[in-house]
Design a protein that fits this description.
Helices cover about 40% and strands about 15% of the residues. The protein has a 5-stranded antiparallel sheet, covered by helices on one side. Strands 6-9 form a two-stranded antiparallel ribbon. It has 8 helices and 9 strands. The longest helix is centred in the middle third of the chain and has 20 residues.
Length: about 280
């Protein structure tokens, strides 16, 4: 989120909570990315805030409610207020349960894989309209085609990324694997290690595709504990995801710390995978 918008976003979260009868005298920033995540005190509620134009909060709230109802390992909405999406001062605010971190922190690989498998099982029970994962491939290819947004990307690297995206999209599609609802980005940053066990957050990224696309976002050792994963398909999905996240890092608006360093590192991995000389 833009630094200039932070005070307004925090104020929107506190005002929303207050309007619902929740005391929010203090707001502690827990994460600042495409959304601002705050712990509001003394009500001890977690608020997620995003600009109105850059969010799909209603989809996230709907899916979270339905997954919680079937016992999936997802963070719950705040129980003291009616689940809803609130608009205030150009932002959308959603309110969630705050979970104390587990001690010791972290989620072991077997527990991570079990939580993801249970999430996928719950998602198979839902009839939800969600974009196909290939929509993200399209977005990455459009970014590569827009030199104004990716001015620092060398032509050879642009060709490598575009060719990787095209070939892997085709290869994954030709496998004919059954699609289902997915988290979309179940990486460690979207998995909370809580005293109640591992819980997934950030359901705004939900899409449809093979489970291997989700596994490709998790650490490599997670797949060893996930039953019946197609290892060849997983290999292709990992390279596809790597090409996509590398592309995002070359966007001149990207604000990820060390983003360009990561982009160069990941390009090296893609060159090695494609058989190109370094």
């Amino acid at each position: 989120m833009q630094v200039s918008e932070l005070p307004r976003a925090v104020a929107a979260a506190r005002a929303t909570a207050a309007s619902l009868g929740l005391a929010a005298d203090e707001a502690i920033v827990l994460q600042d990315s495409n959304k601002l995540t705050l712990r509001l005190l003394p009500c001890d509620v977690l608020a997620r805030v995003a600009p109105v134009a850059d969010q799909v909060a209603q989809l996230e709230v709907d899916i979270a409610q339905r997954l919680a109802a079937v016992g999936s390992p997802v963070a719950a909405l705040a129980p003291r207020v009616t689940p809803s999406v609130h608009e205030r001062d150009g932002f959308v605010v959603t309110l969630w349960t705050y979970y104390e971190p587990a001690v010791p922190p972290g989620v072991p690989p077997a527990a991570y894989a079990d939580a993801l498998a249970r999430l996928h099982a719950g998602m198979r029970q839902l009839d939800v309209l969600a974009p196909h994962f290939t929509v993200r491939v399209d977005q990455a290819q459009r970014l590569l085609a827009d030199r104004d947004r990716t001015p620092a990307l060398a032509d050879a690297d642009r060709r490598l990324l575009d060719g990787t995206l095209r070939s892997l999209r085709r290869a994954i599609g030709e496998r004919g694997t059954a699609d289902q609802l997915l988290h979309g980005e179940p990486h460690p940053g979207n998995l909370l290690a809580t005293e109640r066990g591992p819980l997934f957050i950030d359901l705004e990224t939900c899409c449809r595709g093979p489970v291997e696309f989700d596994l490709a976002h998790a650490p490599d050792d997670i797949a060893e504990h996930y039953a019946n994963a197609d290892q060849d398909l997983l290999h292709d999905c990992r390279l596809l995801v790597l090409a996509m996240i590398t592309t995002w890092r070359w966007d001149r608006h990207d604000q990820l710390p060390n983003g360009r360093w990561l982009a160069a590192e990941w390009l090296g991995r893609l060159r090695a995978a494609s058989g190109e000389a370094r």
